[in-house]
Amino acid sequence: MSKGNVYGLFQHRFEHGGTFIRTPDGRDRYSYRDLDEASAAYAAMFTSLGLEKGDRVMVQVEKSAECLFIYFACLRGGFVYLPLNTAYLKHEIEYFVDDAEPRLIVCDPDKVPLFRALAGCEIRTLDRDGQGSVSDALQASRFDPVPCADDDTAVILYTSGTTGRPKGAMITHGNLAANALALHEAWGWIDGDVMLHALPIFHIHGLFVATNLAVLNASPILFLPRFEPDEVIRLLPQSSVYMGVPTNYTRLLGRPALDKDACSHMRLFTSGSAPLLVQTFTEFRERTGHTIVERYVMTETGMNTSNPLDGPRKPGTVGPPLTGVSVKIVDDSGDGVPVGETGNLCIKGRNVFKGYWRLPEKTAEEFDAEGYFRTGDLAQLDQDGYVSIVGRSKDMIITGGLNVYPKEVETVIDAMHEVEESAVIGVPDADFGEAVTAIVVRKPAAAISEQAVIEHLKSNLANFKVAKRVHFVGELPRNTMGKVQKNILREQFGGD
Fold first, then answer.
1. What is this structure's pTM?
2. Which domains does the chain have, with CATH numbers?
3. pLDDT digit string (tens) for 100-120?
4. Would you tell me which of 60, 90, 197, 274 could form a disulfide with 482, CB atoms 3.0–4.6 Å apart?
């Protein structure tokens, strides 16, 4: 690696690779040599615009290979890459612009008026086809990777902001390198692997995991603009690695074409960004002959744990810690909890971010005296060292002075044959403080009543954990990475 610059780690592998991006119709569109040359050209152009090491490059564009060129150019040039979800609207973008103070913005051509009204910096365009003023101005250039320290910020990713204003997590060159190397080892990447990429690239899953790992292995990437189940199934025979979120897997299972023949060339399926239902895990294994590797990632830490490639992959768990990652589960006083007990999950390692952008006090609050990051997740550790995520601490329900972990109740409801999935929340209650409330999605054509769900819970859980109300919906609200947005459910059903 070039003096800490993570681009050097990737560049070292380019000579081993041929195709970088392969289109869904089977054409080799870009090579790894193209990636190296394009990233040099973009880095040189950004420097000519006056950008210096540490300056932020804000990007809100549709998924394209050229967007990846810009990402790697930022790493190469020591600039800070700052991707934005394409769904963000004006008031959200205004906050990000004010907070991050970018020196360069790359956006869809249709968004130029919006960004011009919000920012006084240089603005360039890039459309979904990779065309725009940022690519039109490109010229072949030489550009050596800028020397960077391990703790120099490489990327800023804003947290979802479901509780308060979004915070910019500063991900360093060292963080990216540590995560890529640990996962390359843990998931047994080999020559000949082909990544089937159907994730967005403004998020850690699609950018740092799916993209970085393929590039570190110099593997071809079958690059889809979005997730479409029929297209993913069509391309499985040309692939060996697929990474998805739980919603992707449930939709794949809804297609009869998903079977063992379709998956015969596959080596690895992984799932993350949200909990994978045990029934989805089991049904996928029965249909395809493949056992999904579930793992645990956070914006602030990258990948922390993973079920093993060789060894038991336990449904409902996210596996043991990766190499170089330390995990502890503690009570509210900071003392360790026994095996099988629920506590607060804390993480330490080179994968953990260096802090929140311009929020030193908040950063200090989130680390304990031993340097462990308080994730805000509630978890358990089993006798084999596997971690299970029970829920978010902010989602824990306190009813009548007793703690209820939503995941425990959801697991019981999800086991009902008539139920597709569920989400459990706490809503204000005059008597109990919070009332356990279940939001349930029925399976197609299934008939199940509120009373039936409540009776099922009474048969399987202590009475204080039983939902006092059950609401049925067509689908649960999710963000772009498949996580259920319980804040929306609390707003929707909190007044009932």
1. 0.85
2. 6-186 (3.40.50.12780), 396-493 (3.30.300.30)
3. 999 999 999 999 999 999 999
4. 274
